[in-house]
Amino acid sequence: MSLRYALIALLTGRPMTGYEVSKRFGASVGHVWHAPDSQIYPELRRLESEGLLTGEDVPWGTKARTKTRYAVTAAGEAAFREWMNSPASPHHSRDPAYLRAAYLDWADPMKARQYLLSQKQFHTERLVVLEATRAMLADRTHPVLAARLESIDEAEHERIIAFRTYAYDGMIARERADLKWVEDGLRLLAAND
Amino acid sequence: MSLRYALIALLTGRPMTGYEVSKRFGASVGHVWHAPDSQIYPELRRLESEGLLTGEDVPWGTKARTKTRYAVTAAGEAAFREWMNSPASPHHSRDPAYLRAAYLDWADPMKARQYLLSQKQFHTERLVVLEATRAMLADRTHPVLAARLESIDEAEHERIIAFRTYAYDGMIARERADLKWVEDGLRLLAAND
DNA sequence: CCAGTCATGTAAGATGTTACATGATTCC
DNA sequence: GGAATCATGTAACATCTTACATGACTGG
After folding, report:
1. Which one of A67, A85, B171, B185 is separated from B112 by 20 to 30 angstroms, measured CA to CA?
2. To the nearest whole number, what is the mean pLDDT of chain B?
């Protein structure tokens, strides 16, 4: 259910084609919510059919080819606002990392170490990307944020930026906690073998 | 795909009926991996049909009623070990909390505050439960862990407990980070309104 | 002219959620 | 006798993953 709101949220920044949306989901939005193309295109169509987005055919290339540029409608903004104001259902996290960690005694120590090292690399890389994105939000060089700010009263800019960076602060804090945890795991393995 | 390994992992502690498994998923295992009854019972049957578990009918009550007690087979242990040794696919976290946080400017400030307060309560309560469970693992009063240890050479006990508590340390650290983040959010809201 | 990007999906299957459904047993 | 617990699901639907599929356009 969150995918649709992630899509609307993104498109409040500025209108985009499905392809652009899909690229964004591989980058900044993807940090917050991941989805593959095969979910994005159909969901955009569904949102359009429900009147939360408009799909405008714009010419592309030399021939009579077109691409669809989606924009949020007033109804879409209202639906998003309503979702934002609705109470959140408790979120069950289901992270296989904890399951593996708890039963690491069942793994070959070599493989366990390899696993933790790959986790370490994953978190390290993700941390770099998150921090870079947060910096782009803070200094307003983030393209979608910049587009969004243009359509908004300047008095509100600071507030919007504060919330966007706040979300990244949470993700960054979590990554740091996870990274430290993985490093503890490597020490634990080393101590045991 | 992880549900089945969570089930096998739990049952390596000791044999259980579907009902006991389901209760455990509402408690300690549930911290690591959540699943409702409607997933648990069919999956246990599937695992039995694949030979990873055995289902033994044991009498229950006075009449000819029976319940099924599941136990891990050698094949089940092998499959679990194999999974533990396989490289982990990158895990895409999809936490609606970050999506909401990033767009908190769209919410009514009152509702945003209520939302964050409910998040705070959720994390606080979860933290208490996680710490209590971790303590029970550390002092070996956790029933499933205790049962598991009985069937295992004492030289290995420390190692097993270390990994079980290590998993909880990760979840606890994450909860603490999330809690701090939520509190920052409340301060941010207060500063803005 | 060829590689990379832009553009848009379908289809099948796995997984997870929500709601509903039923009855025995045990303990007070 | 009644409430809580034990026991076990089905059914419908939503969501997500994985694999496959196609072709035009752009820049070097």
Report:
1. B171
2. 94
